[in-house]
Structure formats: C-alpha cells, structure tokens
User: Which sequence fits this backbone?
C-alpha cells in the first residue's frame, strides 16, 4: 500500500474522518442530496452503526468510505488517505487492501465456487495460486464453511452465503470492515450468527467495523456507537453500550 | 492480475455463455477461413506459375549478348558502347563466364536455318541446339520418345508442329489436333537428313566427326580466313515434344532440336560468323545460374565484363507486382468476412457487459482496477480470436483441399496432369491466427473500455 498517498495524521486513533462530506446526484432537473454535509469521526477498533430510514443517505456514506463512490465536495479520510484525492487506480488498491465489504445481497459471483469467490481479491492482489487456495480455504474454515467450499452460491443458504462473503471481505486482512445491511436478507437466527461474527472480528482482531442498518434494536445489541442520518444529514451521534437495551434482532 | 489468472477467468466466462460465444467464434472462424482460402489460392497460383517458369529454365537463365546489340529495352544498355566497340562472344568468353561464381553452365546459342529431308521432301526450318541440362525442361514433360541419348548423338527432337509438317498433317484452325502419340508412331526411330553450311577455317580441317560429303568448297565469303562447305548429316528422330520449349523466342523459335555438342562439332555457319574471323563467334550465350536468387549477381558480373545481359527477372518483377495486387484484392475480400465477424465480437462483449454488470461491480468492490476489468474483456476477445483463428485456418485449409481435389478431378477428365493450386504455408497459418487475434483485440477495445468505466455503485445496484 506504499503507493497510496497518505495525509498527515492528527491522531493515530482516528480510522475514518469525514468533513462536510457531500454527495449530490442530478436526476433530470432535480438535485438529489444523498449525503449533505456529513462530518464524523470513527476511531480505530470501533464498532459503529449508521442508522436511518430508507433514503437517509447511510448507504451512500458507506460507499464513500468504501471508495466505491467519490464525494461531490468535502473530504473523507480513511487510515490517513484522502479518498477524494486518490486516482481510480489508487482507489482500486485501497478497496483491495484497506477495506473489506459485505452487502445485503451477499454479492457472490454465481458462476464461481465459494473457494473461487473468496480467492477473487487475492487474484487481483496477484497472490500465487497455491498460497491463494490455502488462504481461501482457511478463511472459509474460519467462518464454518469447510464442508461447502466447492459449492456454488446457489447451493447455499443465505446465512452461508453471507458467511462466505465475510470470508472474502477478510481475505486480504483489511483494517476496516464495512457492512451494508448484512442481515437484511437473513432470518433472525442467521442474522444473529452474522452479527456475532462481526462482533468477534471487531473484538478479537481489533478491526474497525462500520455497519449500515435500519434496525435500531440490532445496532443497540452489538455496536459501541450509533450515528443517525436523515435526508443526507447527520442528525444524531451517540455512544451505545452493546446489549444494554432490551430487544434484539427483529 | 497475472496472465494465467486472466486466461483462466476469461475462459471460464466464455464457457458460461457457451452458445453465444461459440457462435461468435464460429463467425470468426468463417472469416479467417475465407481469408486463408483466398490467400492460399493466390499463393498456390503464384507457386504454380513460379514452378512452371522455373522448370521452363527461364528463371535461372541469363542471356548474354554483345553490348552493341541493343533493343532488349534496358535503360542502361541503350547507353552502351557503339557497334564494333564491344567484345565479341567467343569460346574464351564462354569459359570465362562459366568460371564466374554461382554459374552452373554457360553454353552458346547455336541457331541456324537448314533444310531437312524426310523421305524425298525438303523442309526448311530453324534448328537450335540444346544442352544436356535441358532434359529437365518443362516442355519435354509430355514428350513422346526420349531425350538425346548423349550430347554428341546424331539425334533430333521435333516440335509437334514440325512433326505435323513432316507427315503432311497440318491442321486447319478449328480442326481437332493430331495427338503427339499419333504423330510419334510413324516418326520415332526414322532418319532425317539435314543439309547445312559448315564453316571451315582455312587452318582447321573439316571435323572428322561430321558425316557427309562436301558439296561446294569455294564459298569463301571473307577472303582467306575460312570457307563454307555444304554438308549433310543424318539424324535419328528420338522425340516429339508437345509443348514449345522456345515459346519465349517468338517468331525465331526453333522447331527442331539437336544435342549441343553435336551442333558445335558440326561447325554450322551462323550469321554471327560473318562479322568475325578466326575462332567461331556466338551470337549469344545462355548462362544457367545455380539459384534463381543469384541471377542479379551473375548479371552484374557479366555486365562488368562488358556484355549485355537479359533475364526473365525483369518480367518476373512485373509478375510479382501482379501477384501483389492479386494478394491485396484476395486479402481484402477475404478480410471482409472477418470484419463482419469482428462486429459479432463487439456485440457479444457488449451483451456480456450488460449480463455481467453486477459481476463487474463485485469485482471492482473487492479490488479489481479498471485495468483488470479491461484486461479481462480483452482476454475474452483475444481467446475468441485465437480459437476462431485456429479453427478458421483448419476450415480454410479443408476448403482448399476440397477445391484442389475437385479441380484435379476435372483436370484429369480433361486429360491434364494434376496440379497444386492451393498452398497454405506456415507463415499464412501464423499470420491468419495473429490477424484474427489482433482484429478480436481491436473489437474488444470499445467493450473493454466500457466495462472498465462502469461505476461500481451503479453496477452493484443492477439486477
């Protein structure tokens, strides 16, 4: 990652910092302010939830942090890298090495087996074939899919697919794990399994986890901090003691 | 992404849409097959002409004349020395030329008019002498009888038209020709008597090898240097040639051929003898070169000696030009199908982008760069190109074989010898596959760029 320029760090404990972050789209004559002046900081090792209703801009913020999208204005600095200033090539390297991402719809490639899906980022990182296979199998074992390695995604349950997606997100040992509605397509039991895994990665590996969800109860059960968005703006940012509130996954 | 990974992913993607990609690849194959078929026909025809010309002895032969004998048409020879200033072509010059590097043999062109008696009828014609090496000449391929048994044998080969004349079978236009075999039957083994003028230098007695009797000993044309005597020579007819070995010589072509050494020993009076005295002088010398590729070197060396040269090289340069134009035309027509096929590649890949939009988004989300995506689409286009090219070459070669076979069946029915009209040299195989590969890559340019530019957020939203 030496090729990606870093900006001077104010504090080493800040993993993500956005300042007046905006992402506006034009749809015909209408200007849509998906993200509108969001400033926030996430410390290294934190487990944060971005909450809000549909269209509140939480997924857009996550895409900006993931380097999948670029801000219209403002800045987002992740691990001392100002993403707005990175080239397309540098952004690709950033996505490859710094962040891991899981999605609501799992986003596994249907024509590939689980092992092939998990080793896909390693192909782009030009890891040797033999080493790649071992790493992918090891990662799948870690998420409990040792018996399903050579199956295609369509042969697996939603929970298994999301676990495979988690294994893929972690294969390049990123510092940051971003999850966009990771339990959105799962039943409550499976959703809990996935959330437990995210918590384990956060606590055992010290990984910074940012999760987008619209389920407040789920967030309250697992995360250390909840950031609320509405109409593209940050409306509330409050700490949370995981499991302190009653309820759970609903 | 590493090349093997790229190839593996590309092949996997091609397999996923097997039918569509197979159809596109077949399209490329047909394009390449048409290109290969067209070009191999052109190459085959050129090789056929070259073989024919090489066999005719025209490609490896340089005609050496005195420089003051102009009119052959070469620019440099128009600026040659005035008549009389040039060296004469005599035996010493012949030997000198024969010793030049790359020269196989140099022999004088002996050509004279004489009367031939067959039975009681006299026939006047042009006679020329052939070296033993002329045996491999294409013109004697369909000959009835045999070539001269030796270079000094008192034997003669007749051209078909002269054989007809001897038998009084001159046919009118439109009438069916008498076959060479029919002409040969009454003639082979029979004798002819040749009446000719012998040049007898005053100091040299008449050659003992010459049979026949002097009929006039007083024909001294140039004073005391030599005399001309009329002689007779019996010759046995050993062959009747169908084709005309001297077709390039136009109206001066000979219809009767003698072995070279025999003709030399006969000391036949030739027109060039009139201008000189003492040793015999040749009107021209034919020089055979070891390899047609060295003909220019030999020509240059002979020119340095002060003689004029002419070879079919000039004519063949024109022929090469004609074939280049032919290649270009055939290549353009052949390539048209490949151009159509390349549009198929663009279509297939653009469809693949639409179908795999989400997959491209996923790849970008997990770290694929624009370059990786671009390379993947290039690899798919390239794989279709190479595969289509290889199948196309086989297809083109097969088409060639079928047409070659069909043409030869037809030729056989028309009583012509079989020929090879089709040639697929290895360079054409390599070039065709390479061309197909490059065309496919070019076709992949637009789809690859489009795929690489996909916005990952939009692509991931695509269902």
Assistant:
């Amino acid at each position: 990652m030496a090729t990606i320029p870093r900006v001077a760090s104010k504090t080493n404990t800040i993993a993500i910092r956005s300042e007046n972050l905006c992402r506006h789209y034009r749809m015909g004559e209408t200007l849509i302010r998906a993200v509108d002046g969001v400033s926030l900081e996430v410390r290294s090792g934190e487990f944060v939830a971005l909450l809000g209703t549909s269209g509140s801009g939480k997924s857009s913020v996550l895409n900006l942090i993931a380097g999948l999208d670029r801000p219209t204005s403002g800045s987002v600095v992740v691990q001392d890298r100002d993403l707005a200033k990175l080239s397309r090539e540098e952004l690709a390297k950033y996505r490859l090495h710094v962040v891991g991402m899981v999605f609501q719809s799992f986003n596994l490639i249907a024509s590939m087996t689980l092992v092939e899906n998990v080793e896909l980022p390693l192909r782009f990182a030009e890891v040797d074939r033999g080493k790649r296979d071992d790493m992918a199998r090891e990662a799948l074992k870690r998420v409990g899919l040792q018996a399903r390695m050579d199956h295609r995604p369509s042969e697996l349950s939603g929970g298994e697919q999301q676990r495979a997606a988690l294994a893929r997100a972690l294969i390049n040992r990123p510092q940051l794990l971003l999850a966009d509605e990771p339990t959105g397509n799962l039943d409550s039991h499976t959703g809990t399994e996935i959330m437990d895994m995210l918590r384990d990665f956060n606590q055992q590996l010290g990984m910074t986890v940012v999760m987008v969800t619209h389920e407040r109860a789920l967030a309250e059960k697992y995360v250390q901090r909840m950031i609320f968005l509405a109409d593209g703006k940050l409306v509330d940012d409050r700490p949370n003691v995981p499991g302190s509130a009653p309820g759970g996954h609903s | 992404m590493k090349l093997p990974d790229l190839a593996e992913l590309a092949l996997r993607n091609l397999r996923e849409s097997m039918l569509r990609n197979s159809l596109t690849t077949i399209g490329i194959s047909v394009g390449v097959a048409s290109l290969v078929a067209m070009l191999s026909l052109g190459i085959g025809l050129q090789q056929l002409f070259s073989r024919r010309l090489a066999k005719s002895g025209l490609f490896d032969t340089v005609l050496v004349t005195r420089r003051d004998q102009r009119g052959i048409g070469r620019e440099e020879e128009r600026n040659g020395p005035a008549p009389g200033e040039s060296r004469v072509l005599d035996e010493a010059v012949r030997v000198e030329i024969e010793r030049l590097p790359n020269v196989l043999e140099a022999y004088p062109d002996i050509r004279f008019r004489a009367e031939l008696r067959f039975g009681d009828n006299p026939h006047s014609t042009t006679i020329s002498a052939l070296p033993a090496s002329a045996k491999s000449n294409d013109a004697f391929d369909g000959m009835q009888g045999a070539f001269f048994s030796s270079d000094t044998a008192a034997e003669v080969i007749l051209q078909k038209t002269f054989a007809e004349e001897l038998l009084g079978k001159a046919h009118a236009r439109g009438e069916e020709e008498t076959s060479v075999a029919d002409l040969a039957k009454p003639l082979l083994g029979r004798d002819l008597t040749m009446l000719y003028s012998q040049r007898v230098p005053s100091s040299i007695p008449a050659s003992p090898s010459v049979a026949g009797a002097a009929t006039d000993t007083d024909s001294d044309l140039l004073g005391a240097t030599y005399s001309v005597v009329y002689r007779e020579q019996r010759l046995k007819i050993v062959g009747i040639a169908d084709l005309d070995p001297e077709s390039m010589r136009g109206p001066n072509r000979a219809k009767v051929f003698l072995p070279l050494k025999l003709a030399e020993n006969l000391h036949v009076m030739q027109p060039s003898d009139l201008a000189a005295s003492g040793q015999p002088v040749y009107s021209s010398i034919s020089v055979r070169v070891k390899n047609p590729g060295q003909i220019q070197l030999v020509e240059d060396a002979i020119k340095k000696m002060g003689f004029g040269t002419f070879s079919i090289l000039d004519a063949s340069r024109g022929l090469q030009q004609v074939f280049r134009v032919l290649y270009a035309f055939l290549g353009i027509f052949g390539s048209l199908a490949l151009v159509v096929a390349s549009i198929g590649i663009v279509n297939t890949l653009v469809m693949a982008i639409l179908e795999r939009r989400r997959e491209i988004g996923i790849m970008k989300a997990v770290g694929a760069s624009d370059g990786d995506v671009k390379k993947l689409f290039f690899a798919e286009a390239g794989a279709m190109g190479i595969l289509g090219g290889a199948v196309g070459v086989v297809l083109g070669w097969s088409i060639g074989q079928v047409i070659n076979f069909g043409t030869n069946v037809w030729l056989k029915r028309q009583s012509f010898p079989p020929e090879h009209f089709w040639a697929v040299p290895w360079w054409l195989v390599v070039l065709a596959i390479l061309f197909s590969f490059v065309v496919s890559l070019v076709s992949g340019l637009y789809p690859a760029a489009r795929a690489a530019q996909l916005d990952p957020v939009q692509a991931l939203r695509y269902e």
